[in-house]
């Protein structure tokens, strides 16, 4: 259709018939052609104000009439009766309700309408279709403004009470005619079409000058040049000046009216209200404001995308019709900030004149507090009649959208100012406004801080948006805005706003208060982030901070000032709403936890740096004294406020206690001691609350922390109370510790471990670990163990022994025993269970027992149980990490009194002397003896050097008795282990008498091995080996069959080889006796001299050491069984290290690498190939090539380290491995 052709727009001489014809064409869409060319001729002579203004109006209208050439383009109509969401798809237009009081004057049917991309927010815009002389109109309008400024009250009362028809001047009919023509023109008809004389004039006859000034100003405010009028920059600037001046006039007028209505009769207020609604002031102002926001957004998007959108969009868009010059859009902030002032004065005026609607009569806008989305489309917004501005969806949407515009940061302070100024006028919408505005401000604050961190290089995470042209004090302004809003809601507002004489409805205030408290955790999150950024800025060096300031667009300014503002915000909240404040701290604490913590095996998690800043923040708030913090934490634990419903696993109590634990660690001792009564109350209450297990662990942690810092209290009463509370807390943790146990039978009190997986303690993320495990267990079995039992045991192991020692003085130690007996009741069942799934609990329990055993007075509680466990045949089935704890326990068990070790010796003696009766199984009895011998060896191993030296003759006797029994490999293997322990635990001079026995037994075993191998070599033999009574089964050429017995013999061979290995690894001076026998076992440097000995007339080769002989035999055997070949494997030799690290062998060939190495390493020819180190000493000497002075010192260090390694290896030989389940 013709109207889509832009030339029709610029054709200013269109006759009526065309216009009429076009209006019936398929589209009625065009913005109201507004031909309000205003100009003024100054009247001279002083007249009363009323008259002067009246003359001005008349002359202005007359000029407008004389100058205008009128024309009209196709109309675009909008209506509020249309659902603006569906506006794009609607073909029928109506006269905008902004103009029409009566609704739509006419409706037209239409066929297939084209698509128009004009945003509904522009429905208020009026267009000039030709240029007008803005300077003259501006002159007249400025005069009105000047009068308003100079004598506001007189002028306002005059124009409010003077109607235009009280003087029958020649201008009256002209003025009425002009107003009528403008009304027709705005409705979309031609300015010059004939107007029936009486149809419109009556509607203006009774109008006051007030109404006319308001409507004219609004006309100017919403008027723009059409894009098809060739307007120069001066014209556009003139039009903008007109808009600004008209806003100024309205602002002055409304501010004054607000004052006047306050003291006048009721009728005046309703008259003003009628004028406002007749002129549609609120609606126009809101539309102007929203469209200014929208234009800024659209212009920003275009600039970012670098595209001229109007060329892309199909059909008509607002850009293609309205001349919003780039300059205009860019500086729309000028118009916007004036509009905000206007809106503020309008809100106050409206509050004065509006008759309050019956509460609940109107539906509340929107739903939940949380969800006012800055991204929501603006198309669905409609003006609701009879509602105050603050209750309009358009108002809240405008505020949130404007605050969301990061490219218009410079406007934010003014928007924040608008909100804080209008808070008392919000009435029932207060809760929704404060919640959504505060949330948006917090989002802005977060983003600014993330941007600062990103720009200064502290983090690599790019924020969602980067703000530009930021005012230098923006952070402070946002913070002050948040403070003002929150304090208004949370504190008594009468003190703040009393000068406004606004009565604040307590009901709405209470709603707003609960709204703010429900989002307090989000606010705290933002504020603490700011606090940590300030901490970063302060802690970094000054030059670095200066360079950061230059790299970032965001200026932190004076960190001290911002800190003060933060404390000013938080102080009153913490005083009046402490529980919510602390709960918010706990929530943020949980947010700030580290994903990965390096410290493992801590039941109580170590706080991250970010979390510790929270402690610092709370300590900085002057209202939060230590007693107050303790009292508040207690209240939070009793009744935690509902926070963050989405976090189903967040235990607020646990987070609160984690914070409190860190807090207690960081306050001075004197403060902690002074606040003991508050702490006691907190601990007492917490024990009774039935907190989740991690919470109870933290209570024990807090108690422990207090006792470490302040071991003794002044008064007896306090000390007794401390003991009682300790007793309760320990008992509670003990119950958690025992929760993985179950009763064996209904009546007996025996407990055993439930068969189900357990958790390894890892303090990084206790709750998450446990959650995952709970889920797997739930699927796996119906019986779920307490997932926290291992944690409870670990914690008790860490703190219990020391804690009880500090809390109970020396004369009160007796009171500890019943507590420990209870704890041991839970601990022993775990220690009896050696299965793999119980390993974590076993480890924790053994640690606990070990820590308790260090205190003499606890002995009664654990002595019998520990000894029974030690004698248990499965005792050595444990993890290597547990051995050191058992060594400590056995050492304490044997040394704290004189009888226990003697008992053990007696048991060994009795087991040996008891003759084999007819009824006992010989194997069982031998195993019993071997077991006791191993226990005795472990006891000696757990002691200090020479501690049991006086028992050595007895011990030697027991060993010799064991060796007297022939062919008992199981027992003899233990004897060799015992020999190794004695080498490590007795001084060389005490062992002199034992060496002959050791050497004899060693030679004996090597002879057995040799005979076994030679017998094996002779394939023709089918009977058993020649050694009498050797218990082996012989099977062709394969050596031992892997029968039960042959495995025992192999264990014996391995044990003997390990003794030789140890004797060679230890430094020669600590084994002087062995040096005399070395030649029998290993080849020395002189062995290859080839010296012959003449004996009984025959030549014989000299003696070959056992190692060489066995190596040769094993090599032969290995060649026969290539599938079992170990000859290729080699061991490496280092001084001070054991070579043989096997714990079990399945065939003799596995010893070949060991014998090979020994036959080479100490042999001079071989060692000349290996390197200059031949003898043991020289080899060790290689490590110490420093000067003589250091040599001795470094040798000591070397041997002490070597000895430690050797002891660790021997320790592992005791172990028998866990039972796998």
Automatic annotation (TrEMBL):
Start and end residues of each DOP1-like C-terminal domain: 659-1020
Cellular component aspect of the GO annotation: cytosol; endosome; trans-Golgi network
Pfam families to which the protein is assigned, alphabetical: DOP1_C, TPR_DOP1
Domain DOP1-like TPR: 119-492
Lineage: Eukaryota, Metazoa, Chordata, Craniata, Vertebrata
One GO-annotated biological process of the protein: Golgi to endosome transport
Protein's organism: Hippocampus comes (Tiger tail seahorse)
Biased composition (Polar residues): 1-17
Top-level taxon of the source organism: Eukaryota
The protein's name: DOP1 leucine zipper like protein A
InterPro entries: DOP1, DOP1_C, TPR_DOP1
Residue segments, region Disordered: 1-72, 95-114
């Amino acid at each position: 259709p013709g109207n889509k052709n832009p030339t029709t727009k610029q054709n200013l001489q269109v006759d009526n018939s065309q216009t009429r014809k076009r209006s019936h064409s398929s589209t009625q869409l065009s913005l109201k052609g507004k031909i309000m060319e205003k100009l003024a001729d100054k009247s001279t002579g002083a007249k009363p104000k009323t008259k002067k203004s009246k003359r001005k109006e008349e002359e202005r209208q007359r000029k407008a009439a004389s100058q205008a050439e009128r024309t009209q383009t196709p109309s675009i109509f909008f209506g509020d009766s249309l659902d603006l969401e569906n506006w794009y798809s609607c073909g029928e237009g109506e006269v905008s309700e902004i103009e029409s009081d009566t609704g739509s004057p006419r409706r037209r049917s239409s066929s297939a309408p084209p698509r128009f991309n004009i945003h509904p927010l522009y429905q208020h815009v009026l267009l000039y279709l030709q240029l007008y002389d803005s300077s003259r109109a501006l002159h007249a309008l400025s005069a009105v403004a000047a009068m308003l400024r100079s004598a506001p009250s007189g002028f306002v009362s005059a124009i409010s009470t003077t109607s235009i028809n009280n003087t029958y001047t020649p201008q009256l009919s002209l003025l009425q005619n002009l107003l009528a023509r403008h009304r027709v023109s705005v409705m979309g008809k031609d300015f010059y079409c004939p107007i029936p004389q009486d149809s419109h004039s009556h509607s203006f006859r009774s109008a006051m000058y007030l109404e006319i000034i308001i409507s004219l100003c609004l006309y100017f405010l919403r008027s723009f040049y059409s894009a098809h009028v060739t307007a120069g920059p001066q014209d556009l600037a003139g039009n903008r000046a007109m808009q600004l001046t008209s806003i100024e006039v309205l602002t002055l007028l409304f501010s004054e009216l607000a004052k006047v209505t306050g003291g006048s009769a009721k009728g005046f207020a309703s008259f003003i209200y009628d004028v406002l609604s007749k002129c549609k002031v609120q609606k126009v102002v809101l539309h102007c404001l929203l469209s200014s926001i929208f234009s800024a957004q659209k212009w920003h998007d275009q600039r970012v995308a670098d595209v001229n959108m109007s060329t892309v969009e199909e059909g008509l868009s607002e850009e293609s019709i309205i001349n919003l010059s780039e300059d205009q859009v860019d500086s729309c902030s000028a118009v916007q900030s004036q509009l905000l002032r206007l809106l503020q004065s309008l809100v106050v005026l409206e509050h004065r004149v509006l008759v309050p609607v019956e509460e609940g009569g109107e539906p509340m806008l929107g739903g939940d507090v949380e969800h006012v989305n800055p991204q929501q489309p603006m198309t669905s917004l409609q003006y609701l009649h009879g509602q105050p501005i603050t209750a309009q969806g358009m108002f809240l949407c405008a505020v949130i959208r404007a605050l969301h515009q990061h490219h218009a940061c410079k406007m934010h302070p003014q928007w924040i100012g608008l909100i804080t100024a209008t808070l008392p006028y919000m009435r029932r919408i207060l809760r929704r406004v404060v919640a959504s505005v505060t949330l948006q401000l917090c989002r802005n604050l977060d983003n600014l801080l993330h941007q600062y961190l990103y720009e200064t290089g502290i983090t690599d995470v790019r924020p969602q948006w980067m703000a530009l042209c930021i005012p230098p004090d923006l952070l402070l302004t946002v913070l002050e805005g948040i403070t003002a809003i929150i304090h208004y809601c949370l504190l008594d507002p009468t003190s703040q706003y009393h000068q406004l004489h606004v009565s604040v409805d307590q009901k709405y205030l209470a709603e707003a208060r609960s709204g703010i408290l429900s989002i307090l955790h989000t606010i705290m999150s933002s504020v603490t982030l700011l606090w940590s950024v300030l901490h970063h800025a302060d802690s970094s060096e000054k030059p670095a901070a200066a360079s950061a300031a230059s790299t970032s667009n965001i200026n932190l300014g004076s960190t001290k000032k911002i800190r003060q503002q933060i404390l000013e915000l938080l102080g009153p909240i913490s005083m009046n709403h402490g529980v919510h404040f602390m709960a918010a701290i706990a929530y943020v604490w949980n947010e700030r936890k580290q994903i990965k913590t390096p410290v493992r095996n801590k039941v109580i998690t170590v706080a991250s740096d970010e979390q510790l800043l929270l402690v610092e923040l709370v300590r900085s708030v002057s209202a939060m004294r230590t007693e107050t913090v303790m009292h508040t934490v207690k209240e939070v634990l009793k009744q935690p406020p509902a926070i963050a419903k989405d976090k189903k696993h967040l235990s607020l109590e646990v987070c609160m206690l984690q914070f409190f634990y860190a807090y207690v660690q960081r306050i001075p001792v004197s403060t902690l001691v002074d606040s003991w009564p508050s702490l006691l109350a907190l601990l007492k209450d917490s024990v009774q609350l039935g907190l989740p297990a991690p919470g109870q662990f933290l209570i024990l942690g807090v108690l422990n922390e207090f006792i470490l810092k302040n071991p003794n209290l002044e008064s007896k009463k306090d000390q007794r109370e401390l003991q009682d509370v300790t007793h309760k807390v320990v008992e509670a943790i003990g119950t958690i510790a025992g929760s993985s146990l179950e009763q064996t039978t209904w009546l007996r009190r025996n407990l055993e471990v439930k068969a189900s997986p357990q958790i390894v303690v890892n303090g990084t993320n206790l709750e998450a670990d446990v959650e995952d495990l709970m889920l797997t267990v739930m699927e796996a079995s119906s019986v779920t163990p307490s997932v926290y039992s291992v944690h409870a045991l670990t914690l008790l192991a860490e703190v219990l022994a020391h804690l009880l020692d500090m809390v109970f003085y020396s004369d009160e130690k007796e009171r500890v025993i019943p507590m420990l007996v209870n704890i041991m009741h839970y601990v022993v069942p775990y220690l009896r269970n050696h299965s793999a799934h119980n390993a974590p609990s076993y480890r924790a329990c053994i640690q606990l027992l070990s820590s308790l055993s260090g205190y003499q007075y606890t002995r009664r509680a654990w002595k019998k149980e520990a000894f029974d466990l030690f004698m248990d045949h499965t005792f050595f089935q444990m993890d290597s990490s547990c051995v050191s704890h058992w060594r400590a326990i056995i050492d304490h068990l044997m040394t704290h009194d004189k009888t226990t070790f003697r008992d053990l010796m007696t048991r060994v003696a009795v087991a040996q002397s008891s003759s084999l009766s007819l009824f006992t199984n010989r194997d069982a009895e031998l195993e019993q003896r071997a077991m006791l011998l191993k226990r005795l060896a472990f006891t000696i191993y757990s002691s200090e050097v020479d501690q049991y030296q006086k028992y050595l003759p007895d011990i030697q006797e027991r060993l010799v008795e064991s060796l007297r029994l022939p062919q008992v490999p199981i027992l003899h293997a233990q004897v060799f282990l015992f020999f190794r322990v004695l080498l490590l635990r007795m001084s060389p001079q005490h062992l002199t008498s034992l060496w002959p026995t050791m050497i004899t037994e060693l030679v004996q075993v090597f002879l057995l091995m040799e005979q076994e191998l030679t017998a094996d070599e002779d394939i023709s033999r089918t009977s058993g080996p020649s050694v009498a009574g050797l218990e082996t089964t012989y099977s062709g050429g394969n050596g031992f069959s892997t029968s039960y017995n042959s495995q025992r013999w192999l264990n014996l061979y391995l044990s003997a080889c390990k003794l030789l290995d140890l004797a060679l690894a230890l430094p020669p001076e600590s084994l002087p006796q062995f040096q005399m026998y070395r030649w029998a076992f290993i080849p020395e440097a002189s062995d290859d001299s080839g010296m012959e000995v003449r004996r009984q007339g025959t030549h014989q080769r000299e003696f070959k050491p056992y190692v060489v002989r066995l190596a040769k035999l094993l090599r032969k055997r290995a060649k026969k069984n290539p599938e079992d070949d170990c000859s290729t494997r080699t061991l490496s030799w280092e001084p001070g290290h054991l070579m043989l690290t096997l714990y079990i062998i399945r065939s003799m060939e596995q010893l070949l690498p060991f014998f090979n190495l020994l036959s080479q390493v100490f042999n001079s020819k071989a060692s000349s190939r290996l390197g200059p180190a031949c003898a043991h000493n020289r080899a060790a000497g290689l490590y110490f090539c420093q000067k003589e002075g250091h040599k001795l010192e470094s040798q000591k260090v070397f041997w002490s380290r070597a000895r430690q390694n050797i002891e660790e290896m021997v320790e592992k030989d005791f172990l028998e491995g866990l039972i796998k389940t």
